Amino acid sequence: MAKVAVIVPAAGSGQRFGAGRNKIFENVGGAAMFLKTLEAFTNRSDVCQTLLVVSSDDKDEVVERFGGHLGFLGVSIVNGGATRTQSVRNALERVCDEAELVCVHDAARPCVAQVWIDAVFDAAAKTGAALLALPIHGTIKRATDDSTVSETLQRDEYGNLWEAQTPQVFARDILVAAYAANTDATDDAALVENTGKPVTLVPGDARNIKITTTRDLAFANAVIKTLPKPTQLGQLHPFAD
Ligand code: CTP
Ligand code: MG
Fold it and tell me: Sorting pLDDT into bands at 50, 70 and 90, what band is 58?
């Protein structure tokens, strides 16, 4: 079983959520969102290190209110950066030597089930780079600034589109090389793609939502009770409920 270091970026400010403080403190399924996210990883036998990336604005509150709990879970705190990329870069420098794989998973995605983590960890162990993603099945329209349709995309032109989620998981040397290349990208997988490495898409689940707005929080609280249970001796299909 490959050993995995998990990086959980939580050092944003939640501007679009608009709570006047970082959304990571909002309650999801009975706990602070970032704790719920961390707990999906900390009791896994394949996880050897968990790094929580926190901004300077939130660090005191995280340490004072949650320091004991984080210590119990074995989570280390890393200082955040001005961008998500910089936050992940700071944590990557702290990954322990034992880790063969590095997993990046946003604190803002607390509804992640063990079976989905199993699937993306397995794929990354095989190919060196994998992410959870959702195939886009809908009809896609382009709009003008005043929300009028300017174009309906033709399926055969845009076919095979996927929406990226996290976890995104990489062989440690592949991710380190991607960050060293210093290219620009909106997620870790794209940094790896920029180095020419193939990246595997693992079919995810719409419940693994990234909480961006208050509506997303309501959705997350509704679906977190419905997540698939861990597989027992591999008897269940990984995406069965
Ligand atoms: N993040 C981070 N460091 C940053 C910016 C974002 O660690 N400088 C983290 C966020 O805390 C979040 C994840 O990256 O867990 C995805 O970012 P996003 O959903 O955009 O969160 P925010 O940047 O906080 O939200 P917003 O863009 O609305 O301000
Ligand atoms: Mg952001």
Answer: very high
